[in-house]
Amino acid sequence: MTIDLYRSVLRPLLFRLDAETAHHLGERALAAGFPWGLYGDRLFVPDPRLRVEVAGLSFANPVGLAPGFDKNARTIPALQQLGFGYVVVGGILPHPRPGNPRPRVLRYVEKESLINCYGLPSDGLEACAARLRRVRTDTTRVLANMDAFTVDEYVRSFETLQPLVDAMEVHTMCPNNRDDRGEFLRRGQFEQMLQAIAPRKRKPLFVKLLPWENETEHQERLGMVELGLHYGVDGYTIPGTWNLPEPRLSIGRGHISGRMAFPRTLEIVRELAEVTRGRAAIKALGGIASGEDAFQAIAAGATLVELLSAFVYEGWTVVRRINQELAALMAARGFPSVAALRGSAAGRQTADGRRQ
Ligand SMILES: Cc1cc2nc3c(=O)[nH]c(=O)nc-3n(C[C@H](O)[C@H](O)[C@H](O)COP(=O)(O)O)c2cc1C
Question: Which of 47, 66, 89, 335 could serve as 341's disulfide partner, Cβ 3.0–4.6 Å?
Answer without folding.
Answer: 335
